[in-house]
Automatic annotation (TrEMBL):
Coiled-coil intervals, chain numbering: none
Name the record gives this protein: TetR family transcriptional regulator
InterPro entries: Homeodomain-like_sf, HTH-type_TetR-like_transc_reg, HTH_TetR, Tet_transcr_reg_TetR-rel_C_sf, Tscrpt_reg_YcdC_C
DNA-binding region coordinates: 33-52
Species this protein is from: Actibacterium pelagium
GO biological process: negative regulation of DNA-templated transcription
Annotated keywords: DNA-binding
Record has Transferase as a keyword: no
Record has Acetylation as a keyword: no
Domain HTH tetR-type: 10-70
Superkingdom field: Bacteria
């Protein structure tokens, strides 16, 4: 049995993961180094290696923790709920994640753009399982005439694209519209868009 971490060890591990998130979200996996992560953490590289044996180990730990968070809004979509309400709740949750967790969104996006080499197995399996299950739920709502005839897969893809854009392309969004908070208007627009798209 693995010996539990002490309070200081837990604090250091958390600091390393937070530094890794900062570095990876800015530079991607390939552009990041252990030296950058150690410097951001304020630790020496040998001290960092005591907790994680490699850059990849830090990256995988972050992705593993992120996947649970990423899946939660999809899991919360209630098959017994009102279809349009449930889909709009999902849109809001995803948009809120973009607002509150932009670094995590960029970490995930960078990994996927590189072909998801560190996520192909168990992590992507969990996402695929939820994706398939919720696509079946959406198709059931379509078949019963409760929402419009849309393609369930592409509906989910479009929600991902339209919500995660605000985190993954944050610099572009703010360059185009200035320093104003884009999220209240984005939420209103997306609610209007999906309400009209899904109306039976």
């Amino acid at each position: 049995m693995k010996k539990p971490l002490s309070r200081i060890q837990s604090k250091n591990r958390k600091a390393i993961l937070n530094a890794g998130l900062e570095v990876f979200s800015q530079h991607g996996f390939r552009g990041s180094t252990l030296e950058q992560i150690a410097q951001t953490t304020g630790m020496s590289k040998p001290n960092l290696l005591y907790y994680f044996p490699s850059k990849e180990a830090i990256h995988v730990a972050l992705l593993t923790e992120l996947m649970d968070i990423w899946l939660a809004p999809l899991i919360e979509m209630d098959p017994e709920g009102e279809p349009i309400d449930e889909i709009l709740k999902y849109v809001r949750r995803k948009l809120k994640m973009s607002r509150d967790m932009p670094r995590e969104s960029r970490l995930f996006a960078n990994e996927v753009m590189q072909g998801a080499p560190r996520m192909e197995g168990e992590l992507m399996g969990d996402l695929k399982k939820q994706f398939v299950e919720k696509s079946i739920v959406i198709q059931g709502w379509i078949d019963s005439g409760r929402i419009a005839k849309v393609h369930p897969h592409h509906l989910i893809f479009s929600i991902w694209a339209l919500t995660q854009h605000y985190a993954d392309f944050d610099a572009q969004v703010h360059f185009m519209i200035g320093a104003d908070d884009p999220y209240p208007e984005a939420e209103a627009f997306l609610e209007q868009l999906f309400t009209k798209t899904l109306a039976p």
